[in-house]
Design brief:
Blueprint lengths: L1 H12 L5 E5 L8 H14 L3 E5 L15 H14 L3 E4 L13 H11 L2 E2 H11 L4 H8 L3 E6 L2 E6 L8
Parallel strand pairs: 1-2, 2-3
Antiparallel strand pairs: 4-6, 5-6
Length: 165
């Protein structure tokens, strides 16, 4: 309860635009009562936008799954009862990544923020005038790892030497 009070107090004093993002996780926070509690809390925080998201990239815990479409829609309806500025963040963000001139550094930089889908990596390399050998070498050197999520391959920067998947 203390955290909620602090967040509400923060939102009242914050002078800029406050935006929230609630990630829905199947079996964790997607039940009606939980959704209603979150939505009521967010109504008190009063964000200019309340985003509902789902895992769209490989999560740290393989058990984490997105709820089904019905549940996502139900969450939207519940949140909308308390705030008419609710939007989804449930799709792939696209492949429009900025190229600085060094494909290897760019790939490592982007994948340290979030995993890149294989098609995005390929498109990025093509724009950069580079080939897949960069990715193969980064994997061999232990700087990049390949993950699979929802039948798609993703590439992520390896966090530290002892990381095992």
């Amino acid at each position: 309860m203390i955290i909620k009070k602090r967040e509400i107090e923060f939102s009242k004093n914050f002078k800029e635009k406050l935006v929230t993002e609630t990630m829905l996780i199947k079996g964790l926070n997607d039940k009606e009562e939980c959704l209603d509690n979150i939505a009521r809390f967010l109504a008190r925080v009063n964000p200019v936008k309340a985003y509902l998201s789902i895992p769209t990239r490989p999560p740290a815990d393989k058990r984490v799954q997105a709820p089904d479409e019905y549940t996502i829609n139900r969450a939207f309806q519940v949140f909308s009862k308390y705030n008419n500025r609710v939007e989804y963040l449930i799709g792939y963000e696209g492949n429009d990544f900025v190229f600085s001139g060094n494909a290897e550094e760019d790939i490592l930089s982007i994948t340290s923020v979030h995993p890149m889908r294989e098609d995005a990596v390929q498109e990025f390399l093509t724009k950069a005038g580079a080939d897949w050998e960069i990715i193969s070498r980064l994997i061999r050197e232990g700087k990049l790892i390949k993950l699979e999520y929802e039948d798609k391959n993703f590439y992520m920067r390896k966090l530290y030497k002892g990381y095992k998947r």
